[in-house]
Specification:
Blueprint lengths: L7 E6 L2 E6 L7 H16 L10 E2 L15 E2 L2 E2 L1 E2 L2 E4 L2 E4 L5 H23 L4 H16 L3 H4 L5 H18 L6 H17 L27 H4 L2 H4 L4 H4 L4
Parallel strand pairs: 3-6
Antiparallel strand pairs: 1-2, 4-5, 7-8
Helix pairs in contact: 2-3, 2-5
Length: 242
């Protein structure tokens, strides 16, 4: 099952499918044809779409927006939502991350309790750090390369407070949230630059010197704070061969 039009992307994971459509000049016909074709394909291949669990989210930053016709699949209306959860990350239609960060902070604070219980049993620092990395850092850093650059200072401080609490419980310094973010951005950027098959590989254009990558031109703060403008440091930072 693949999209027929280049303006539409299918993201598939297990039994979930997300359709991303770019609507230009108020023309929804391509997007709707792809959704209809997807429903038809599922019917031909003995798969049943659950329209009750299907939602539609519209991201539109134009000053003058127009209401789009509600999406219908198999004669059932699809609910329009302001946010939805995609592979553990809550995406909002305004592309702000407060809702997602609220969920992360709540999860991390709940797991700090178990770290505190481990400390009561006088476990060595090495095991406490290992537990912290596996159980708490894994929550803080889920898709962090996507959202931290656009997070507000207040939300970043809320997340960092979790790290500070873990430091007090364990009794030793831990990598800051910014350090965790930077290491993961460099790791992700390094993989993209070395993988010509990656959809974002074309963005990794080297300067004539070959020592670093060309910075992307951005027109909005939202784009400037995203992964791509900040994701390509020098070869030395990425530990790539010259």
């Amino acid at each position: 099952m693949t999209a027929k039009d280049p303006s539409v992307k299918f993201l598939k994971f297990a039994d979930d499918t997300t359709v991303i459509s770019l609507i230009q000049d108020k023309d929804e016909s391509v997007s709707r044809r792809e959704v209809e074709w997807q429903a038809h394909w599922c019917g031909q291949n003995n798969l049943q779409l659950n329209t009750l669990k299907t939602v539609e989210m519209i991201v539109d930053f134009r000053r003058n927006t127009t209401a789009l016709t509600p999406l219908t699949i198999l004669n059932s209306n699809v609910a329009a939502v302001e946010s939805f959860r995609f592979l553990g990350t809550t995406i909002s239609q305004d592309l702000k991350w407060q809702t997602h960060i609220d969920s992360i902070v709540k999860k991390a604070q709940q797991r700090l309790y178990f770290l505190h219980q481990q400390r009561k049993f006088n476990l060595p620092h090495a095991l406490l750090i290992q537990f912290y990395s596996a159980v708490i850092v894994s929550v803080l850093c889920t898709s962090i390369t996507v959202w931290l650059g656009s997070a507000t200072k207040l939300d970043i401080r809320r997340l960092q407070r979790t790290v500070w609490t873990a430091e007090r419980i364990i009794g030793c310094p831990l990598p800051s949230l910014q350090e965790l973010y930077t290491s993961r951005v460099r790791k992700r950027a390094g993989k993209i630059t070395l993988d010509p098959t990656h959809p974002a590989h074309y963005r990794s254009e080297q300067l004539p010197s070959g020592r670093c990558y060309r910075a992307l031109s951005t027109r909005t703060i939202r784009h400037r704070n995203s992964f791509f403008p900040s994701g390509y440091p020098s070869h030395e930072q990425l530990n790539l061969p010259h």
